[in-house]
Amino acid sequence: MSEYLKPLPKPTPTSRPFWEGARNHELKLQRCGNCSRFIYYPRDRCPNCFSDKLSWHPVSGRATLYSYTIVHRASARAFADPYVLAVVELEEGPRMTSNVEAPHDQLKVGMPLLVFFDDVALGHTLVKFKPA
Amino acid sequence: MSLKGKAAAVGIGELKPAKEPGDLTALGLMATVSAEAIADAGLEKKDIDGFLVGMPYADPGMIYPTSAAEVLGISPRMLNVVDIGGASPAGMIWRAAAAIDAGMCNAVLCVVADLNRAGDQRPPTVSTQREFEAPYGNIGANCGYALIARRHMYEYGTTAQQMAKVAVDQRANALKNPLATFNDRPLTIADVLNSRMIVDPLHLFEIVSPVSGGAAVIVASPEIAKRAKHPPVWLLGAGEYANHSTITYAPSLTTSPVKVAAEAAFKMAGLKPDDMDLVCPYDCYTITVIVTLEDAGFCKKGQGGPFVAEHDLTWKGDLPCNTHGGQLSFGQPGLAGGMSHVTEGIRQLMGRGGERQVKDAALGYVNGNGGIMSEQASLILERRS
Description:
The complex is a heterodimer of chains A (about 130) and B (about 375).
Chain A: H1 16-23, E1 28-32, E2 38-39, E3 54-58, E4 62-71, E5 83-90, E6 95-99, E7 112-121, E8 124-131
Antiparallel strand pairs in A: 1-2, 1-3, 4-5, 4-7, 5-6, 7-8
Chain B: E1 8-14, H1 26-41, E2 50-53, H2 64-72, E3 78-81, H3 88-101, E4 107-114, H4 127-132, H5 142-156, H6 160-174, H7 189-194, E5 197-200, E6 202-203, E7 213-220, H8 222-226, E8 233-242, H9 258-269, E9 278-281, H10 286-295, H11 304-310, H12 326-330, H13 335-350, E10 363-370, E11 375-383
Parallel strand pairs in B: 2-3, 2-4, 9-10
Antiparallel strand pairs in B: 1-7, 1-8, 4-7, 5-6, 8-11, 10-11
Helix pairs in contact in B: 6-10, 6-11, 9-10, 10-11
C-alpha cells in the first residue's frame, strides 16, 4: 500500500465502536433506547432527546444520495484528484458525509446507494458508498 | 424586552483589502480601522468603553480581548470575542446594543481584521469535524456550499445562470466602490459560467477570494449618537439563530437558520422585507444570497433563483443588494468580509454611498452568516429623517 496522505479519523472512546465496525466491514450506528432514533455521528447522549441509553446496532448499509459535489479543486492538497463528496441519507434515517465512487455523469440526487468499506491504510477503514 | 432604537452605529472604519498580506499584521490592521472608526464617529479613544473583537486566524490567542485591548490602549467595561464565524460582525452589533441598553457601557468598538493567504486549507480544529468530515475531503467551506447549491437545484430547479446573476449584479456595484478588490471590469453571466469549475456546481467567480484587511464599527448610546459627526444609524431589530455546524447534519440543506434570525429581527423592528430600501446579505458564495433572500422573506421559498434573475440587484435597481460589491467582488478579509455588509449598510443609510448611493435609503437589512449557513445574525437598520 502506497503512503496515504489524506487525514485519517482518530477514534475517541465515544466513536471507537463505529470505526471498529468499519474495520470489520460492518456498518454500525448508535440507536437511542428512549426515542428509538438512529444517530450519526456517535454521541454520548442522544442529540434528540438527550437520553444516555444508547446502544450499537448493525444497519443495512442502504442509502440514497441526498446531495453531492464533484470536487475539482480541493481546499487541501492531499485531495489532488477530483472526487465526489456526498451527503448520503441512510435507510435508518441519519445523514452521513461520505464519498461516492461512481462515474460522475451517472450521479443523481436520490439515486440508491450501497455501503462499501475502503481499507485506506493499515488499521484504517473509511465508510463509502457506490450505486446500488 | 427589545433593542429597538436603543443604540446606533455612529462611525465606521474600513480598509481596501490587500491581495497579498506583505508586511501587514492583524493587530496593526485593527489599530488602523479602529482609529478611523473612532474619528469617523467624532469620538476620542478614551470614549470607548466597550470592546467586541473577532479573533484573527492569522494571529489567534486565548483570552484574546484583553490582549487586543492592551495593544489598542483601551480599558473596556465590557469585552468579548464574538466567535460565530462570518456572523460575528452582525452579531457584535446587537451584542453592543444589548450591553449599552443594560447600562454596562456607552460606546462599543466592534473590530475585526485578518490576514489571508490563498493556499492549503488548514485541517478542521473541531475534533468531530476532523474525525467525520476531513477524512472524506469535507475540508473548508467550498464543499458545504456546493452541497447546498446542488440540493437547491434539485428541490427547486434553481439554475447555474440564476446563481451567476448574483455575482454579475454585485460586480456592477463593485465598479463604483474604490475599496473593492475586483472593480476593474464588469462580469457577464457567461464569464461566471466559463470560469473554472471548482466544486461542481460552483464556479470560481461564485466563490469569495481570501484577502487581507480589517473593518470597525462604533455602536453608541442615544446620548452619544445625538452628538455624532454623521447621521446615526439606529438598530431597529436583531435576531440570531444556529441549528447545525456541518451542513450534513442540518435539519435542512436548503432552508437555513436565516429564517428564524430574520423573523426575529423583522418582528422586533415591526417591519417586513418589503419595507427595506437595500439588503446586505452575506455572500461567501452566490447560493448564499439566494437562500438568504428566500429565508429572510424577500421571496417565496424556492423562488430565490427566478427572484434574483428578475430583479436588478445593483445600486440603482429595484432591490439594491450588497452595493459594495459583496464579498464576491470586495474580497473576503477574514471576518472583515462579514463586517463589509454591516459597514455598507451603515454607509448607505448615512448617505455616504458616493457614486453607488441608493436614493432615499432609510431602511436596510443586513445578514451575517457563519460556517456552512450555520450561524445567522440578522439586523434591521434605520436612518431617521
